[in-house]
Amino acid sequence: MVTINDVARRAGVSVSTVSYTLSGKRTISASTRARVERAIAELGYHPHAGARALASARTNIFALMAPLRPDVDVSVIMQFVTGVVTRARTADYDVLLLTQDEADGVGRVGSGSLVDALILMDVESDDPRIPQVAALRQPTILIGLPEDARGVSCVDFDFEAAARLSLRHLTALGHRNVALIGPPPAVIARHTSYADRLLRGYRAQAEHDGVGCVIEPAGTAPGEAVAALDAVLTQVPELTGLVVHNEAALPVILATLRDRGRRVPEDISVVALAPADVADAQPVPITAMDIPALNIGQVAVDMALARLRGSDTVETRLIAPTLHERSSTAPPR
Prior knowledge:
By secondary structure, the chain is of the alpha/beta class. The chain is built from 14 helices and 12 strands. The strands form 2 sheets. The chain has a 6-stranded parallel sheet. A 6-stranded mixed sheet has the order 7-6-8-9-10-12, sandwiched between helices.
């Protein structure tokens, strides 16, 4: 195994010079730095993570807290995770993925020197982790938007705007008998921030457009999706427009509409809020708004890196929705 001593001998410098080159704690001349970096590349030297942490007060590790609860769509969560991990690697950071549903996990992970920054997912509107975040020395980025985000940097998709845009698209086509099939009941019950914002936006647009506001949550199991659709059809027998934000339920809803003799878009127009790969996988080209999970994960890392580089900016970034109109929506007959 290549050691720091091997690098020093190859570069013709002292071990301390190699250490200072790696840590940046002292100024090293450009020519000396170049020799050290060349020796590192030629030998394939990789500093031990613990030694690097002692030398630089950095571990080059991010903690990503992504609770894998039974009611979450793991495939969508992993798109956010992929965005975080891939962007972190470009900055020479590794990612410690924590999937347990533990409110006190933030304090435990952040209390020592294990990680340089934390990124939190599955944020609730009144998230119990926020007070712990405020006490940490490490920067923390939320993928989500709590009701009170003061002092905390956040990034997320603008679910409120997306809900408004989806319903506005249907009503602009002339649909008056509309409904929303939304996230699982447990997600809504614990006031996950994206769900609260989605419902708020849909209700506001329904009031603005003067249409009935029918909202039905759907579980992740196929039978629960069918039950949600049946509940909507019972409440709105003349349904012609449907907004769906539930990736697991979407294919079941489309299949059930077909089985019930309801054609898309001839009888019912459908708009989906879903990652592009989910919308594209459906048998009908779906009018949809992509949830850019990969991009959001990357932005979260960029925000954490900016804080580590000395930026004091606390900001909220909401990614604006874009509607991609396809053949699943049309004016009602």
